[in-house]
Amino acid sequence: MSIYDTLNPMQKEAVLHTEGPLLVLAGAGSGKTRVLTHRIAYLIEEKGVNPWNILAITFTNKAAGEMRERVDRLVGFGADSIWVSTFHSSCVRILRRHIESLGYTTNFTIYDSDDQKTLMRHVLKKLELDPKVYKDRAMLGVISSSKNELITAAEFEAGSTGDFRQKKVAQVYKEYQSQLKKNNALDFDDLIMKTVQLFESNPEILNYYQERFKYILVDEYQDTNTAQFKLVSLLAGKYRNLCVVGDDDQSIYKFRGANIENILNFEKAYPGAVVIKLEQNYRSSQSILNAANEVIRHNRGRKDKTLWTANEEGPLVLFKQFENAGEEADAIVRDILNSAADYQDCAVLYRTNAQSRLIEEKCLQHNVPYRMVGGVNFYQRKEIKDVLAYLKTIANGRDDLSALRVINVPKRGIGATSLSRIQAFASEHGFGIYDAFCRAKAVPGLGKAADKVLGFTAQIEDFRDRIQEEAYSIHDLIEDVLDETGYLKELESEGEIEYQTRLENIEELINKAVSFEGDHEHPDLNEFLEEVALVADVDRMDDSENRVTLMTLHSAKGLEFPRVYLSGMEDGLFPSMMSISSDDKEDVEEERRLCYVGITRAQKFLMMTAARQRMVNGETRYSKVSRFVEEIPDHLLDSNKLEPRLSSVRSNTDFDDSALPWGKPSVRSAGVSSFGPGKNAYASKTAQPASSPGFGKAFTVEKAASLDYKEGDRVSHIKFGEGQVMEIKDGGRDYEVTVHFEKAGVKKMFASFAKLKLL
DNA sequence: GTTCAGTTCTTTTTT
DNA sequence: AGAACTGAAC
After folding, report:
1. pLDDT band at A564, cuts 50/70/90?
2. Which of A65, A276, A296, A426 is the most buried (most CB within 10 A)?
3. What integer is the mean pLDDT of A531-557?
4. A239 beta carbon < 7 A from strand B?
């Protein structure tokens, strides 16, 4: 029996149809990943296609990794020469080779949304526009959607005749773009758009990639935008062996420019395309699927399909409404504790990141271990961005933003006035900021500050020299930067608790650098920075530990869990106020699709919850039950909707927060044991968040009174494996331990984070 | 010229 | 509840 016999007839057809355009409409849980992986395997094994000629585009890097792994298992060899990556990573890879023909250099920097905002502020200032009228966010929004539609600054300008504001925005776009170029930087949207431009202006480069990627697969096709559509069309233009997989009911990224028409009109764009529908759901119970179908039924303009399942009926979907959000969170966490399920089988989903806080608090209170996806992105934390800005300055001398970020961090006594003098000097002579720093002596009116600036550049130059050496690793560089610039020292003086959490984050970045070095034969600083710039939060989700997952509905796309809790089912929150009051009916439909995505994440058990009262932006808000819940008929729902309130609005002072761990010094020692039955897997751990991307203040890592290992002992580390303790230094707040690991080499680490075990 | 403390305004969702 | 901005003290 071949591996293809395990597929159902529709799946099999999708796998075997290898030539020409193919649209696979894959409902939630219908085994689309299986189809994709088997298809790749089939191409290689049965059709003799060279793995080198296959391009598979996924939505997240994590999905890419999983796909590669699964193909590897099916095929056994050759899987590493398949390109499996996201749109953004693929484009970076291409641009790193060819971007010079667009006037950038190949060591360009990628700006994340914070960088974009900073840059936009510069632009608005330079153009002397009132930031109250021309808001950075709004400007970036316009630019982003333009780029997603492949509209250049010049085209935008040409199209904005007449309207005064529109003309101003055109100027902003133009200036923003020229600033990016000056900084040798690209924003996220540029990555796609520049690649399209590259292909359009260089037919020979396009031809190379067309020949290279004879077979193209695109996952989550419903969430592609116009630029991505164009990119795919260009690449597939020659051989037309394009297979796209998606579900119009799961299109949830319109705000990011996703164009649902791409999937709805696929057959028009690719005449002769074969369409295959996968309608059997293998994931969810009958009850869950019923609820999902009822909700999505209320949307117009969708491809006709009905999901069905042969799975057992399972318990009814639960709905519970609570007095306030605290009770809601408490009930969810208690329910997880009372169930016999493993923590890792449970997920709590919510519409906005802000909702995670209460859930986190309750998890801590009840000692339920959790991992939070998203929130404040790890790479957006101040200390991480500071370190990265140093690395970027060292790697790319043209990145003004990064140089400006760190010139006075730690404080070197270079203030706003000095900086604006330097900036004026730079723009007058056409220097980049860093070059201007190097010429500080020539800047008029700097005085003593000039020496301070030169001190900074001397340090940077020193680091630049060092990274030329083969033996000098990225993690060495990070550690030296922290040490020699005095960054750590300044952090230390900011207070114990702050210091520890920030240090913990930095440690994680160093770990990341170490594992990067392990994965690459010739680790390159630019490559490292790029990898770090493109990671999504889900990419960082480590699912090997037994923890409850907390994340937004958007992050949950593509995942599945036996037990799912859908929280905050309130009108005004989900669907959001924005979508309800929008003129465009499509907006609520997108929210409904999001709800559909949420429901269909559940395999066996689904509980939806709502709070009557909730704090939003510091104000108490009262809400009705979400319309999406109302759309599910009563007989499909086991619910306890509260009676309408009669009188007496309870103030939220009855929410007792004295029990919360904030500010209480000894969270760690509180209640280590005491788990309900069935929770043995975790009995030895406290409810600490995954080392990232949680939030930190509550966790003070205390210096141990003594260590249970000494110099010369053999110890093991969770990541680096086994090794021998070389040196233990008492660093005041913590012990600094040097260990020689067999595999990972010599590492210096802080005892409280390293969690070394004596062997 | 720099830093700190009190003020206002703000947020959906993310590669 | 939190970040970003503005005005006063060092």
Report:
1. very high
2. A296
3. 83
4. no
Query: Is A44:A81 a contact under the CB 8 Å cutoff?
Result: no
Question: End-to-end distance of chain A based on CA atoms, in angstroms?
Answer: 47
Q: Between the CA of A490 and the C1' of B5, what is the distance in angstroms?
A: 20
Of the listed ranges A222-236, A330-344, A489-503, the least confidently predicted one is: A489-503
User: What DSSP designation does A62 have?
Assistant: H
CB-to-strand B under 7 Å, chain A 464-493: none
Q: What's the token pair of residue A711?
A: 């110099």
A413 touches strand C (CB under 7 A): no
Q: What are the CA-CA distances from residue A450 to residues A407, A422, A447, A454 (Å)?
A: 12, 10, 6, 6
Q: Which tokens sit at A246?
A: 């998606």
- pLDDT, residue A660, reads 32
| Residue A697 Cβ < 7 Å to strand C | no
Residue A486: left (phi > 0), alpha (psi -120 to 50), or beta? left
Q: Are A596 and A553 in contact (CB under 8 A)?
A: no
Helix axes A449-467, A416-429, angle to 10 degrees: 70
Where do the H-state alpha helices sit in A149-187?
153-158, 164-182
Task: Determine whether A114 is exposed, middle or buried from the number of CB atoms within 10 Å of its CB (0-12, 13-18, 19+).
Answer: middle
The alpha helices in A520-624, defined as continuous H runs, are 525-533, 577-581, 586-599
Q: Can you give the distance from the CA of residue A527 to the C1' of nucleotide B14 in angstroms? A: 22
Q: How many residues does chain A have?
A: 759
What is residue A30's DSSP assignment?
Answer: S
Q: Within 7 Å: CB of A121 and strand C?
A: yes
**A717 SS3 class:** strand
For residue A697, give the nucleotide whose C1' atom is nearest its CA.
C2
pLDDT number for residue A68: 87
Say whether the CB atom of A617 is under 7 angstroms from strand C.
yes
Residue A275 vs residues A13, A56, A246: alpha-carbon distances, Å: 10, 19, 11
pLDDT in tens, A161-207: 778 888 888 999 999 999 899 888 999 999 999 999 999 999 999 99
Structure-token pair, residue A193: 């758009």
pLDDT digits (tens, 9 = 90+) for A247-260: 999 999 988 889 88
Active-site residues of A, by number, are 32-33, 219-220, 250, 601
Nucleic acid strand B: bases within 7 A of protein CB:
1-3, 10-15
pLDDT of residue A368: 87
Phi, psi of A63 (to 5 degrees): -60, -40
* Confidence band, pLDDT 50/70/90 cuts, at residue A743: low
- Is pLDDT at A55 greater than 90 in this prediction? yes
Select the more confidently predicted residue: A375 or A110. Answer: A110
Mean pLDDT of chain A: 83
Would you give the DSSP letter of residue A321? E
User: What pTM, to 2 d.p., does this model score?
Assistant: 0.78
DSSP H or E run through A730: strand A721-730
Amino acid making up residue A183? N
Beta strands in A457-569 (DSSP E): 548-552, 561-566
Calculate the angstrom distance between C1' of C8 and CA of A420.
Answer: 22
State how beta strands A735-741 and A721-730 pair: antiparallel
